[in-house]
Structure formats: C-alpha cells, structure tokens
Amino acid sequence: MNVELQINNSASAEARFVTWAPSPCRIRVTNRAAVTTPIVNLHIQGISAASGGAVVFRKTTTGRFSSSLTLHVPISGASVPFFVGGRFGRPSVNEGDVTIEARDGTTLVGSVPVMVRIRKNANALTPGERDRFISAFAQLNNRGAGRFQAFRDIHTDAGDLEAHGGPAFLPWHRTYLLGLERELQAIDPSVSLPYWRFDRAAPNIFTREFLGESDDLGTVQFSATNPLQFWTTDGVQGINRRPQFKTADEHPDLSTEAETLALGRLYRLFREMQGNPHGLAHTNFGGSISSIDTAAKDPLFFLLHCNVDRLWAKWQRQVGRFDPAQKASYDTRRGNRIGHRLPNTMWPWNGITGGDRPPTAPGGPMAESPCVAAPGLQPRVRDGLDYQGAINPLSRMGFDYDDVRFD
Ligand SMILES: [Cu+2]
User: Fold this and answer.
1) Domain spanning 122-395 has what CATH number?
2) Is the pLDDT of residue 61 over 90?
3) Domain 2-116: CATH class, spelled out
4) Most buried of 9, 39, 238, 366 (most Cβ within 10 A)?
C-alpha cells in the first residue's frame, strides 16, 4: 500500500512549509495493493533530529495538538483531512528537517519532508540561516537591477499617508514585509524574515558578515564574502547608517518590549508604538533609515519592521485582538483617511493611483504563496489582522514568530 500526504492541501513540494498555526493537510491511499478491508488505520507522526524542527497534529480545526495521530483512511482513495503545525519552541533550521511519516502497523506507507518555517531573532540565527537570508536578499537586489527596487519605491514620501497616515500603519507594514518575504522565498524557500529586537543589544546583526558595520562616515562595511557588499538602490551602491549607540553592546534608548505591550488593551492605544519604539528605532540611526523617503533603501529596515510586526503579533496574542469585527482590535473612529478603514484595499497592491491615492503604485499586486491563499492579490486593511487564522482559518498568512504562540 502507498499513501500520499498533502501539506497545505497541496501535492506540490513548494507547499511543504508549516508554522505554529495549523496547516490543513490530507492523506489518501494511492495504491491499495493487497488490502481488502475498506478502511485502514494509519499512524501519522513527525520524525525530527534533536535540534531543528518538530511538528504536532490534530484531526480538526480546533482541539488539542498531539505528537501523533491515528487516521481511518478508506482504500477507495478518498482523502482524509488532518492538521499539522510546528511544535512551539522547535522551529526548523534547514528545509525539510522534519519528516512526516504514515505507517500501517510498522510498515512505512508514505512520508513527506516539511519545514517549520518561522521568523526568528536575527541576533540568534545560525551562520547557515544568516547566509541563506543575505544571499536571497542580495539576489533580490541584484546590484540594483532586481525586484527589490519596487520595494524601495513603495516606501517613499509619496506613499507616506498610505503607510503611516493612520491606523493601517501596522497592517500595511505587515503586508509589505510579507510581500518581501515571499519574494525571498521564491529565491530560497528555506528563508524567513528575521527580526531585529531593538530593545536589546544585537551584536551579531551589526557585523561585517551580516548587515554590516558602519565606519566613521557611516558607510556600511562588509566582509569580502558578504553579497550585501554590492547592495545598490536608486543607482547608487552602498548603505549609509550612523548608529547613535554602540552596536557591539548597546541598544537604542526606546520603550522596552514589556512597556510596548503594556500600552493598552485597545488598538488605538497600542498603536502609539508608531512613535516609540518604532520611530525611535529608525532615528537612532543617522543615514537613510532615519527618514521615511529613504528608509527602505537599507535592508535593516525590514528587520526593524519585522520586530514592529512581532510586537503587534505578541500584543494581539496577549489581549486577543485578531478579530476585525471586534472594535478593540482596530481603530475604527470616523475620520480615518482612505486606505486606513477596515474594508479599504491597501495601496500599492490595489493599483489605485491619483485623487486621494499616490500618483503611482509600484510593484504590482501582492505576491502569492504556494502554502496559503491569504491575504490575496489586493489585500484590504482587515485582511492584515488575523495572520494566524485564529478567527478564520482561511485568513492564515503563512508566517509566525519564534516567541509568539498559536495556542
Ligand atoms: Cu514605514
């Protein structure tokens, strides 16, 4: 007998990536061989190395996760659903470092490799994770000729009011980061966007091997093997960054994570974090990252914002703020400009230009994922809230943070 295991309800190898939030999966018999009973009882479990990814299972969209599952699978070939999620605290290090096996008794009848692909603290990446990330990022930039230029062009003064002019600040940047992450994953699917936890020293990020070290003029220096040395935006090679703190052992003077999470239980109170710590994290660097118009020229921007998004995710989990139908999850006051109300589509993915919107919409529609359908080609503000599919499983956006649980 043989069975097929479909991860994210797909037979494609491109879909074999999971997060803490459970992925819908299917199993079906593809070759019944000599089996005569109408149903077989198959045992499903994840095989992991001591380090790296581990997975858990459940039969339905709710209920407890367990380390293995017994499924009653018809030999007719009809699919049986189940769910797989990463075991919290056990993200993968390498692609396919977990194997999901199906056994009939002790006989292996099917298996599939998966990766528990999770956004991690950039300061704690393995050299392999770090190098794959900067390699994919450098390829996306392609010495200024690559797709990255569209991301740089999206985040300018022209789009300022779309991204920063109201409460969609957080969902807009969540979507923007996810679009970039999906482009990186199209280059190397094992990559996820890491975050710069800016309320702690992060000596491993500001090195010549990773995001670079600033010289006295603010020119960022890289090691001879670091592909970011060719980073080019707007036709000019190089990155300018003048940290106002000692990157080897200090961090910017800004609100701590605990202070940020304690801003309040209403979104409109939490959103004050746009000033502190978010704004201060930017302005603690002279150079391009300190101004909206040029901030996205620096790859560090995306690690900084990944932490902003992680703080929002953590706050959402802490106070239960995933449901766009609940007022406390968002700021629904009248007077919010276009692009900042829950039903509005967000620029530039909606392609709308002129009038109340910016004159151009760089980059085209939102990047798609082989693993999940959300947030769609033209995300609305409301699509940015329920990133784990905690309220509606179809809203799951396909990313998770190493220290923000699903359940
Ligand atoms: Cu921004």
Assistant:
1) 1.10.1280.10
2) no
3) mainly beta
4) 366
Write out the two tokens for 249: 């052992």
Query: Measured in angstroms, how far is the CA atom of residue 191 from the centroid of ligand 1?
Result: 22
Distance of CA 217 to the CA centre of its chain: 33
- Identify whether the C-beta of residue 400 lies closer than 8 Å to the C-beta of residue 86: yes
How many Å apart are CA 302 and CA 177, to the nearest integer? 7
Residue 31 token pair: 């070759």
Task: Tell me whether strands 98-104 and 2-6 are parallel, antiparallel or unpaired.
Answer: unpaired
Q: Say whether pLDDT at 407 is over 90.
A: no
| Interatomic CA distance for residues 174 and 346, integer angstroms | 11
Distance from the alpha carbon of residue 171 to the mean position of ligand 1, in angstroms: 11
Model pLDDT for residues 5-37, shown as the tens digit of each residue: 999 999 999 999 999 999 999 999 999 999 999
E strands, 159-297, in order: 213-214, 220-221, 232-233, 236-237, 241-243, 285-287
What does the pLDDT look like over 304-349, one tens digit per residue? 999 999 999 999 999 999 999 999 999 998 899 999 999 999 999 9
Region 230-252 average pLDDT? 97
CA 282 to ligand 1 centroid distance, Å? 10
- Could you tell me the distance, in angstroms and rounded to a whole number, from the CA of residue 292 to the centre of ligand 1? 6
Ligand 1 centroid from CA 192, angstroms: 20
Q: What whole-number distance in Å separates Cα of residue 108 and Cα of residue 14?
A: 23
State the distance from the centre of ligand 1 to the C-alpha of 161, rounded, in angstroms.
Answer: 10
Q: Which residues contact 247 (CB under 8 A, 6 or more apart)?
A: 201, 202, 203, 205, 206, 213, 214
Domain ranges of the chain: 2-116, 122-395
Backbone angles phi, psi at 161, to 5 degrees: -70, -25
Q: With 0-12 CB in 10 A as exposed, 13-18 as middle and 19+ as buried, what is 36?
A: exposed
**pTM exceeds 0.85, yes or no:** yes
Check if the beta carbon of residue 16 is closer than 8 Å to that of residue 112: yes
Say how many Å lie between the CA of residue 311 and the centre of ligand 1.
15
- How far, in Å, from the CA of 177 to the mean position of ligand 1? 10
Rounded to the nearest angstrom, the distance between the alpha carbon of 164 and the centre of ligand 1 is 6
130 token code pair? 């770090």
